[in-house]
Specification:
heterodimer; A: about 260 residues; Uridine Diphospho-n-acetylenolpyruvylglucosamine Reductase, domain 2; Uridine Diphospho-n-acetylenolpyruvylglucosamine Reductase, domain 3; five-stranded antiparallel beta sheet; four-stranded antiparallel beta sheet; 14 strands; about 35% helix; about 25% strand; B: about 775 residues; Aldehyde Oxidoreductase, domain 3; Aldehyde Oxidoreductase, domain 4; 3 domains; seven-stranded mixed beta sheet; five-stranded mixed beta sheet; 19 helices; about 30% helix; globular
């Protein structure tokens, strides 16, 4: 990797100051994508602002009807958290299926959604559960947060502080994993609750998207039978070595029905 | 049987250091004043090197030197040789275009070595490598095996017209045609043996260390055969006297064949250490392993099997195109010829076989031996062919194999493809495998799967391999540039312990345990008193190294012979001490006794006497230190039957391997636990090839599967718990009766897996890897056809 200046601020304000003071600063969360990118010399930021020492960004709390997860909370923490497991077991299971044990012990929810990899799991969780992203400047609805492949609504100097998930009545997540990377070839989160009926798909397209047909069908009764014939067109879906667009389109339907069934 | 002797599942002695992080690998070694090398590699599959501007890199901080092919040429550094000359069907030697450690005129694959930066830190070397300006003239690439011989294919080497390395045949084509003319039925298949990247856990590494005081070099390298590496480097590449190079291959973390070969990087480190007057270290990044380790397999084959009305095999014809990559790696030419076509008889009495193999150059990384090396490819052809034949003939797949097995009373059995099998009992392995898998219960299991919406299939693979890669005279007559014996030195130390210096290199096989058991059992001493030393040309007699499942069959036999010499010399000393004649002295379990008396001496006492020879027989030299070189009389022929059972989810195309039975005949077994571990690892690699692994270059020669994000290695959750059984026919021609077990799983597994999947789907053909999408499409097609 190339040389960079390393900052390790103790607060979000200090982090924001370090970021705005840098020529070409980057926030470092769990580093599961950024460190690999740096090692391959595909990025050369002037400054890395390491969020690892900011205690306020870590942890999980219940707030009214929502589970609020600090941006620097690791996937393993989410997967193992008693309140997440009790209130949104589909979210705990999703976190438990990200990458491998090492990734789950380092990677964070904030880092994952800020990167918005088209095959990451968390975007499906946020959109599929109707979460709200809290930053140091504002609150952003998940529907507005993910704007394109590796693109989000975040401003350059904006730092995610937490993600608030309304507790659903029912929710299920099913992933068809890439056998090599174990990222989602297709991942579907389906839920019903205070945020309405939601179905979000990751992995299949360039960015997480909602499945309106499925949501409408499930609105009349949240069961796998309701979506037997719901599918998605292959047009515009991802196609690579591991899965064609046509196969992904098919898997969206299969994972949708399994996610709904898993939601109980 | 003692609890540490031959036949005991002794826990691996080496595991303590490996599991506690105390192994000592090449990258763990650091030499005083050491510098670091980083290679500038071609980003193009095929490009002229019009010029290299080193100035900016040379001026960069910490950089000591930048070298190109021109610098090595100026020092008369030679080409990396291919050590096996294949003679083509016209009697001419294969085309062997030069393979310089640093490219001179052209880069011929993505990852080809164009320059090297030597600097005071790894980071400085890597940073400066970006400053080396190479003026490439991009050329179209010949990237695909099947298109390499097309008339309009780009030429990889000027001196290999049509990209043809050789057009080689084995067997009599006219006899084969005659057999086919009389056939009741001919089964024809087309298949691809997918290209694999070895992915040893430890990437390759090297430290070249020149000592000006003695004008000699030491090379630390991740090698499976340090002596051969030394021989090649000295005699063919660097032009050194052999006494001027010592090669040390310390702990090595897996090789699977990929660490047999003499590579550019270790050559450059050795050469450069003299140029810069300091040790030069290189350790591959994982992405370098993907682009520049020798790859494996990569065949395209058409095969035909002629049968009579009872499914008896009358003849076989096989036509294969094998990809050599851009250059010939050390033994590349032998893999799709003498390690492949010679195995096409399999376990069967097929009387006539004709094989034609065309080896081609492409703008891809060199291809060479990878676990099984030719034999997995042969087994895949034979066992797919037999399976399809069974279905076309309406004969049970176990039954058609049984009808064609070479019978126990037919050994030694001369095949039509040059090999003479010494022994075997293929029906016994089949019987045991059928019983273990409960073949009779398969129909019921299939019904249960169907009731759950799943498709169940069963697949057989009755494989054979030729192991122990030897004997020297035979391989020499076939074009090998080396002998394939092995050496061992057994040194009884004065106070009762034994040091064994073996030419067999261990890089995961457990030699330190198996060889210790062999020596402890033979000499009758505690296993704790045995030390196994390997991997250093400075301390071990000339040796040939580890590949082709030869370590026990050839290296172990050398150890056994050296132990015999120890016992025979000790007997003379013991006879003297006990005032008896040599003929009257018996040896059993570490003790010499005079027959019919109570006189006895332990072998440790005798060893002490040999070094403190105050009371000593006349004419016997002091010391107890014996060397043996063992050259076997024949290959060994491990064989067995693997049966795989799969369950397929037609909705997603996911194949789950639900059961696996492996019944193998490895001859005598020294350590059943170590053998079982080898079988497990081999099957995992074979299943990896069948379901998951695939090296893909695009049409322009860019490697698309250059990381673990896209190249899928098998993981524990992809595999079932294997069930392993052993049958035994002892090898007839080596002193231990052993055959070798390291490659069997990888040889057997692909055909068993694909046969099971095609059985489940009710189809005849399925290319590897059987990805979920392929399986889903075929399951869907079948379903639609049925509806």
């Amino acid at each position: 990797m190339y040389n960079f200046n390393h900052h390790r601020p103790g607060s979000v304000d200090e982090a924001a100051a370090a970021l705005s003071g840098a020529d070409d600063g980057k926030l470092l969360a769990g580093g599961m994508t950024l460190i690999a990118t740096l090692k391959q010399r595909l990025a050369s930021p002037s400054d890395l602002v390491d969020l690892g020492a900011i205690a306020d960004l870590k942890g999980i709390r219940e707030d009214g009807g929502a589970i609020v997860i600090g941006a620097m909370t690791t996937h393993a923490t989410v997967a193992g958290d008693a309140s997440v497991k009790a209130k949104i077991p589909a979210l705990a299971a999703l976190a438990d299926g990200i990458g491998d044990a090492q990734v789950r012990n380092c990677g964070t929810i904030g880092g994952s959604i800020a990167n918005n990899d088209p095959a990451a799991d968390y975007p499906a969780a946020l959109v599929g559960l109707g979460a709200t992203v809290h930053t140091n400047k504002r609150e952003i609805a998940a529907d507005d947060f993910f704007t394109g492949m590796f693109e989000t609504a975040l401003a350059d100097d904006e730092i995610i502080t937490a993600v608030a998930f309304p507790v659903p009545e029912k929710a299920g997540y099913q992933k068809f994993a890439n056998p090599a990377s174990r990222y989602a070839i297709v991942g579907v989160m389906a839920s019903s609750g205070p945020a309405g009926v939601r179905v979000a798909v990751t992995g299949a397209g360039p960015c997480v998207f909602r499945l309106a047909d499925a949501e409408a069908a499930l609105g009349g009764g949240f069961s796998a039978d309701a979506v037997t014939n719901v599918g998605v067109a292959a047009d515009g879906l991802n196609s690579d070595l591991h899965a064609s667009a046509e196969y992904r389109a098919h898997l969206v339907g299969v994972m949708l029905r399994r996610a709904v069934a898993a939601a109980g | 049987m003692s609890d540490t002797g031959i036949g005991a599942s002794v826990r691996r002695k080496e595991d303590f250091r490996f599991l506690t992080g105390q192994g000592r690998y090449t990258d763990d070694i650091n030499r005083p004043g050491q510098l670091y090398a980083f290679f500038v590699r071609s980003p193009h599959a095929h490009a002229q090197i019009k010029g290299v501007n080193k100035a900016a890199a040379e001026a960069a901080e910490g950089v000591r030197a930048v070298f190109t092919g021109a610098d090595m040429e100026a020092d008369n550094v030679g080409s990396l040789p291919c050590g096996w000359v294949v003679t083509d069907r016209h009697g001419e030697a294969h085309k062997a275009p030069p393979h310089f450690p640093l490219a001179r005129d052209k880069a011929r694959y993505v990852g080809d070595h164009v320059a090297v930066v030597v600097a005071e830190s790894y980071a400085a070397a890597k940073a400066a490598a970006e400053l080396v300006e190479v003026d490439y003239g991009e050329l179209p690439a010949a990237a695909e095996t099947g298109k390499a011989r097309d008339a309009d294919a780009p030429q990889v080497h000027d001196d290999a017209p049509g990209n043809l390395c050789y057009d080689w045949v084995l067997g009599d084509e006219a006899e084969a045609d005659a057999a086919f003319a009389n056939a009741h039925h001919v089964t024809k298949i087309d298949l691809v043996n997918n290209r694999l990247i070895p992915n040893a856990m430890e990437p390759r590494a090297a430290i070249g260390d020149y000592d000006a005081g003695t004008d000699s070099y030491t090379l630390y390298s991740t090698s499976q055969n340090p002596h051969l590496l030394k021989l090649i480097l000295c005699a063919f590449v660097l032009g050194l006297n052999e006494n001027k190079l010592r090669v040390i291959a310390p702990d090595v973390g897996g090789g699977f064949g990929s660490k047999i070969f003499c590579y550019a990087e270790e050559t450059v480190c050795t050469w450069a250490s003299r140029k810069v007057k300091a040790p030069v270290k290189w350790t591959a990044e994982r992405s370098e392993s993907f682009t520049s380790d020798a790859h494996g397999r990569d065949h395209i084959t058409h095969a035909e099997l002629a049968m009579d009305e009872n499914g008896k095999f009358l003849g076989m014809k096989v036509d294969t195109t094998a990809n050599m990559g851009a250059y010939l790696s050390s033994f590349a030419t032998s893999v799709p010829t003498y390690l492949y076509a010679t195995l096409l008889a399999g376990q069967y009495t097929t009387p006539v076989i004709f094989a034609n193999v065309k080896a081609v150059f492409t703008n891809t990384a060199p291809v060479d031996a990878y676990r099984g090396a030719g034999r997995p490819e042969a087994t895949f052809v034979v066992e797919r062919l037999v399976e399809v034949a069974a279905r076309e003939m309406g004969i049970d797949p176990a039954e058609i194999r049984r009808r064609n097995f070479i019978q126990p009373d037919q050994f030694p059995y001369q095949t039509p493809v040059a090999l003479q099998y010494d022994t075997g009992n293929y029906g016994a392995s089949m019987d045991m495998a059928l019983e273990m898998i409960d073949y009779a219960g398969f129909a019921g299991r299939r019904s249960n799967s169907e009731a759950n919406g799943k498709l169940r299939g069963i697949g057989f693979s009755a494989y054979i391999e030729a192991c122990g890669i030897a004997p020297s005279a035979v391989v020499g007559s076939l074009g090998a540039g080396v002998g394939l014996w092995e050496s061992a030195q057994v040194r009884f130390n004065a106070t009762g312990s034994v040091s064994v210096f073996t030419g067999s290199h261990s890089h995961g096989q457990g030699h330190e345990t198996t060889f210790s058991q062999l020596v402890a059992d033979t000499l009758g001493i505690p296993i704790e008193n045995v030390e196994i030393v390997h991997g250093d040309t400075g301390s071990i007699p000339m040796a040939m190294g580890t590949y082709g499942s030869r370590s026990l069959a050839v290296g172990g036999s050398a150890i056994a012979r050296a132990c015999d010499k120890i016992i025979e010399k000790s007997r003379k000393i013991a006879a003297h001490l006990m005032e008896a004649s040599v003929e009257d002295v018996e040896f059993d379990n570490g003790t010499f006794r005079v027959a019919g008396t109570d006189k006895e001496k332990s072998i440790a006492e005798v060893a002490f006497t040999a070094y403190v020879p105050h009371n000593y027989p006349e004419g016997v030299e002091p010391g107890l230190d014996e060397t043996a070189f063992y050259d076997p009389l024949n290959f060994t022929y491990p064989a067995g039957v693997h049966i795989c059972e799969v369950e397929i989810d037609p909705t997603t195309g996911v194949t789950e391997i639900v059961d696996w039975v492996a019944v193998d005949d490895f001859g005598k077994v020294i350590n059943p636990m170590v053998v079982e571990g080898q079988v497990h690892g081999g099957i995992a690699q074979g299943v990896g090839q069948a379901l998951l692994e695939n090296c893909v270059y695009d049409g322009s020669g860019q490697l698309l599967t250059g990381s673990y994000m896209d190249y899928c290695m098998p993981r524990a959750d992809d595999l079932p718990s294997f069930r392993v059984g052993l049958t035994e026919t002892a090898c007839t021609h080596n002193p231990l009766g052993v055959k070798g077990c390291g490659e069997a799983g990888a040889i057997a597994a692909p055909a068993a897996t694909i046969n099971a999947i095609t059985n489940a789907l009710g189809i005849l053909s399925m290319d590897m890897p059987a990805s979920t999408e392929k399986v889903w499409r075929l399951a869907n097609t079948q379903q639609m056809a049925a509806e």
